[in-house]
Design brief:
By secondary structure, this protein is an alpha/beta fold. The protein has helices spanning about 40-50, 100-110, 115-125, 140-155, 170-190, 200-205, 225-230, 235-240; strands at about 5-15, 15-25, 30-35, 55-60, 65-70, 75, 85, 160-165, 190-195, 210-215, 215-220. Helices cover about 35% and strands about 25% of the residues. The strands form two sheets. The protein has a six-stranded mixed beta sheet with strand order 7-8-9-3-10-11, with helices on both faces. A hairpin with a 4-residue loop joins strand 5 and strand 6.
């Protein structure tokens, strides 16, 4: 099970509330976008799910496992959450080949070579990088580097894949192509994905549901049709029709 449940999750820094109490249930197998302008709390939410930020209050549960429960002092570190992460900057290592970049998490976990090679072949085919495994990142296009980052996030077969503005460094034409590929991969694998973006068009193109955020608050969480037909407030109405 990879249903994600956030209950009254909040994050504060001194006198600044980055995230006001947020409750949201992300169904298993859906692609959900956290959408909104800069500073709205979407990346903070993603980082709390990843374990890179500790919430000030609240409870986070994925499947049957509690990862954060502030009241009961429960905190599971990132490396024990079985989650994949794709960053905005790709974060590929320039001194490693494509194959080494992608199967690095398997090497860390000491997965046997036969299994490691099998998974690498499968994931290379999935992201259309078969035959590129011996190249280095500087020999790849921006889109190919992003595929490497995506493959590395998927190779451990995570229960949830988290993506933080993964296409923002690509040009407009390549962004459209890559978002289509990401959606196709998500539907093929039936994996739960949580995807941060400030781009409304991008969110509408790939989402099962969108969580629209504003000033650290969740304004509305619903399908695209529900948001368009019944916006929760004036901010959502203006943002979705901008």
């Amino acid at each position: 099970m990879s249903r994600v449940l956030l209950h009254e999750i909040s994050k504060s820094y001194a006198h600044f509330h980055a995230l006001h109490p947020l409750t949201m249930e992300i169904p298993e197998g859906e692609l959900v976008t956290l959408l909104g302008p800069s500073g709205c709390g979407k990346t903070t939410t993603l980082r709390i799910i990843a374990g890179l930020e500790i919430p000030t209050e609240g409870r986070l549960k994925i499947g049957d496992q509690v990862f954060n429960d502030v009241e009961n002092r429960v905190y599971v570190p990132p490396e024990k959450r079985d989650l994949g992460m794709v960053f905005q900057s790709y974060a590929v290592w320039p001194h490693m080949t494509v194959g080494r970049n992608i199967d690095y998490p398997l090497r860390i976990k000491r997965v046997q070579r036969e299994e490691r090679d099998r998974r690498l072949r499968e994931i290379l085919e999935l992201v259309h990088l078969t035959g590129q495994e011996d190249k280095y990142p500087h020999q790849l296009s921006g889109g190919q580097q992003q595929r490497v980052a995506l493959a590395r996030g998927l190779i451990m077969q995570p229960r949830v894949l988290l993506l933080d503005e993964p296409l923002s460094n690509l040009d407009a034409k390549l962004r459209k192509a890559m978002r289509t590929e990401i959606r196709e991969i998500q539907q093929r694998l039936k994996i739960t994905m949580i995807y941060v973006t400030h781009d409304r068009e991008e969110a509408e193109a790939i989402s099962d549901r969108m969580a629209i955020m504003h000033e650290g608050r969740l304004s509305q969480f619903a399908t695209i049709e529900e948001i368009r037909n019944r916006p929760a407030n004036e901010f959502v109405k203006a943002f979705i029709n901008d």
